[in-house]
Amino acid sequence: MGSIAESLRTAITLILSGDRDVVSAVETSLGVALWSVLIASAIGVPLGVAVALGKFPMKRTVRVVLNSLMAIPTVVIGLLVYGLLSRQGPLGFLGLLFTPRAMIIGQAILATPIVANYTASAVQGADERILPTALTLGASSLQSMIQLAREVRFGIMASIIAGFGRVISEVGIAMMLGGNIRFFTRTMTTAIAMETSKGEFAFGLALGVILMAVSFAINVFLTVAQESHRA
Amino acid sequence: MSSVRYQLSSVQVLYGNELGVAVDDLSFDAGRLHLLTGPNGCGKSTLLNLMAFLTKPDRGQIFFDGLAVKWEAQECALLRKRVTLLHQHPYMFTGTVAANVAFGPGARGVSKDRARMVMKESLAMVGLEGFEARNARQLSGGESRRVALARALACQSEVLLLDEPIAHVDRGSAEILESLIASLAARGMTIVMSSHDERLGAKLGARVIYLEDGKVRTSEQLSASASPRGVGGDCDANS
To answer: What is the pTM of this model?
Structure first.
């Protein structure tokens, strides 16, 4: 118990002193996670709306595949993308392996099914009068869908936040595609794993505290936004 | 002599094996008020959804301004800019009353200034001046119905379809809505409204269309008969 308290004190000191390793890991984590969630949202939100509203063959199969992809292990995604980006792989010429861009690709693949599935659920749970109302007021199909997305924006926002939560806390992709290179691809999670294995418990705990703070801040933001919307 | 706005020919809508509505031959003149009346589940809302180009009939043909509707997506989108349906239970979009009422003009690409002017005029028509900044989801039932009507009016469509616009509203709101509908009809707007209350037909000077078990009879047919109920439940030829 004493060692945990001591580690917590060290963690706070590291955070307050702006330790370069801590700052770099935080910056890399946030940057990679934000980009990957941005890409996942650009693909996942329209895909979720299409899956919820579209009438096409194999719709149920698409939904089952998306559900299954939510549970895919991060190391499997890491392995597949590694195969693509490694020097012998079909995309090896791009020279992306062990760069933040490789991590972004992998994490975007991880987050897309999450964003798409939760968006589809939000749209399916929306009031069924929204689309006919927009259509009869003269909106085009696209305008009507945009209006529907506006009406369920907090559900969509929750899907994006779920995707963000997944990618910022994962280790497998960041380790396999980023390589845990100091001041370049080292994230909070890969740093925690490495420092803890070295016995640097305080450093790991400092990053753990920041990870939890980020997660807490995002949830507070969502709750406040929803409350102000209801008011 | 008035022109025919809608012509429905051998139209049927089915819900699985259940008949939603069946119309052998029915027309709606332009610039006139029409009242659809009949018991619950007789097909009034189904017919209005067809006429709003939101639902495609399973059988038959609808002509709008003399042209057969092909039910292609682009064609329906264009027709829906000419016809507006006020649903029986209108949905208010999240946001202010002003945003709701200005939705139709905005969807039509009208400038913001023009949309704002139309929004204010429409709210004034339903007696809700000063409601612009109110939260559209926090209105009383009668206010909400009036805002929904203002939203439909702001579209400035050629045809207004009203599904039970006066049901479940207080007496004051009902009087305002009835008076507005009568004045719009007097100005030559084509209006088709549904109501359980068939006395509204005489009150508003509307042509009355009776729906029962999905079949149709018109006031012209009924006036030709000594007793409206004596026409027979299976009469389905109208114009």
So the answer is: 0.81
Of A156, A147, A162, residue with least CA distance to A125:
A156
**What span, in angstroms and rounded, lies between the C-alpha atoms of B85 and A7?**
66
Tell me whether residue A92 is in a domain. yes
Residues of B near A (Cβ–Cβ under 8 Å) read: 49, 52, 54, 73, 77, 80-81, 83-85, 87, 89-91, 93-94, 103-104, 107-108, 151-152, 155, 157
Contact (CB, 8 A) for A40 and A77: no
pLDDT at site B183: 92
Share of chain A above pLDDT 70, in %: 97
The CATH number given to whatever domain includes residue A49 is: 1.10.3720.10
Which run of H or E residues covers position A83? helix A74-85
Interchain proximity B54–A151, CB inside 8 Å: no
A13-35 pLDDT tens trace: 888 888 899 899 999 999 999 99
At which residue do the structure tokens 């929904």 appear? Answer: B148
CB under 8 A, 24+ apart: contacts of A82-88: A82/A176, A82/A177, A85/A177
Would you say residue A16 lies in a domain? Answer: no
ipTM of the complex: 0.87
- pLDDT, residue B122, reads 96
